[in-house]
Amino acid sequence: MYGFNVTLNTTVPEAIQRVTDALATEGFGVLTEIDVAGTLKKKLDLERRPYHILGACNPKLAAQALEADPDIGLLLPCNVVVREEANGEVTVGFMDPVAVLGLVEQEGVASLANEVRSRLERVRDLLTSV
Fold first, then answer.
1. Where is the DUF302 domain (predicted)?
2. How is the chain split into domains, by residue range?
3. I need a labelling partner for 34 at 20 to 30 A (CA). Which of 55, 72, 82, 83 fits?
4. Which residues contact 51 (CB under 8 A, 6 or more apart)?
């Protein structure tokens, strides 16, 4: 598996706000937000349920990762997907940094990936406790 997720009974905009707030508790900010459904509608005239990709970054941990391997930026930021399902529920999916950063064979990256995953798991858990 390359990710883990949680299901919420809320709207996509509310879920995005909750995710953004929860990420902040673990030192992450959202660098980018891609409205995939909006882009597909504009570029291809395809209708899709709401689907957003949030590029989450913890600056301190990102700096450590870049110090270990300058090319690690190819695997950053940590993506979080917020999508509406057919039944109206919202799925929030988190990239598993252990799976992704496992591609990097530099000293210290595995422990850093575990730290990032622990933080993202706490974000996931915080979303279900509200």
1. 34-97
2. 3-129
3. 72
4. 35, 36, 37, 81, 82, 83, 84
Rounded Cα gap, residues 117 and 24, in angstroms: 15
Q: Where does 2-88 have alpha helices with state H? A: 12-25, 36-44, 59-68
Instruction: State pLDDT tens for residues 20-74.
Output: 999 999 999 999 999 999 999 999 999 999 999 999 999 999 999 999 999 999 9
Q: What is the mean pLDDT of residues 66-84?
A: 95
Listed residue (26, 15, 33, 7) closest to 97, CA to CA: 26
d(CA 129, CA 71): 36
Q: What angle do CA 4, 11, 93 make, to 5 degrees?
A: 10
| Cβ within 8 Å of residue 10, ≥6 positions away | 18, 90
Q: Does domain 3-129 have CATH number 3.90.700.10?
A: no
Mean pLDDT value across the chain: 96
Task: Report the alpha-carbon distance of residue 30 to residue 20 in Å, rounded.
Answer: 7
Q: What token pair was written down for 82?
A: 């917020």
Task: Give the pLDDT of residue 105.
Answer: 86
